[in-house]
Amino acid sequence: MPRATTTSDVFNAVAEIRRREILSYLALRERPVGDIVVTLRLAQPSVSKHLRVLRDVGLVRARREGRRMLYRTNAAAIRPLHEWTETFERFWGHQLLRVKERAEAKTQKSDSTK
Amino acid sequence: MPRATTTSDVFNAVAEIRRREILSYLALRERPVGDIVVTLRLAQPSVSKHLRVLRDVGLVRARREGRRMLYRTNAAAIRPLHEWTETFERFWGHQLLRVKERAEAKTQKSDSTK
DNA sequence: TTGACATATTCCTATATGGGAATGTAATGT
DNA sequence: ACATTACATTCCCATATAGGAATATGTCAA
């Protein structure tokens, strides 16, 4: 089985660094494709393809303005990612504690850790 | 060019749902491989391979205890991900505002938005 | 209509999967 | 030494890229 599709979910979509860069760029404000091409120095077809992926998972929204397409980041779609990482937040502190605990256990050198 | 390696960074490593499940499971406490196999109902080789990826990017730590290998999640390695998503946090509110603004603009139906 | 501009799609290719099956390796018990 | 338990690695394969090149689509201007 191959890897999951980039459009299968937000996690897969942001796995690509170019797409993360695009998201950061479009978070500030709406921009036409050409601006992304120039600013991030990517080939135009490449940008269009990345935007397609981001659009499919709802990470960006688009609207047409004349010949140009204006894209902007839909920050709300990043929330699931944020929330998932947040579930680990409480363990950051715990792990420091564990290091301390192990250090103490070592000092006493009697506990068989089982 | 193919997709980046799963071990290229944390973003790619967590793109796989099985690996996210493993991380959640190992966040609570240290576990041997066999427990993951039984609990998450995955083939043993599959679990070993996922653990290998997670280890390579520092998302889990391992230590041997007799025949068993005990793995645990290294929550700190998830921080970069958490911090990246956090940069978008301030836009969640802004976007709600924008929706409101657009709704109001529509009501007045006079502004040509440019 | 014709041309120019802006973006999207298609075609091609090398590559990195993730799962299944089979096999390799390490540690323990007898 | 040998069998058993617990993991790790290797081999095979179908599949989804991401980039480059070429082409298609859409919009405006003269």
Structural features, described:
The structure is a homodimer of 114-residue chains. With 114 residues, chain A is of the alpha+beta class. Helix content of chain A is 57%, strand content 12%. Chain A is built from six helices and three strands. Chain A has a three-stranded antiparallel sheet with strand order 1-3-2. In chain A, strand 2 (60-65) and strand 3 form a beta hairpin. The longest helix of chain A is centred in the last third of the chain and has 20 residues, at 89-108. Chain A starts with 9 loop residues before the first helix and ends in a 6-residue tail after the last helix. Mean pLDDT of chain A is 87; it is low at 102-114. The interface between A and B is medium-sized, with 33 and 33 residues. Chain A binds a DNA duplex (30 and 30 nucleotides) through helix 4.
- Unreliable stretches of chain A: 102-114
Structural class of chain A: alpha+beta
Distance between the terminal alpha carbons of chain A, to the nearest Å? 39 Å
Number of helices of chain A: 6
**SSE string of chain A:** HHEHHEEHH
Beta-strand residue fraction of chain A: 5-15%
Quaternary structure type: homodimer
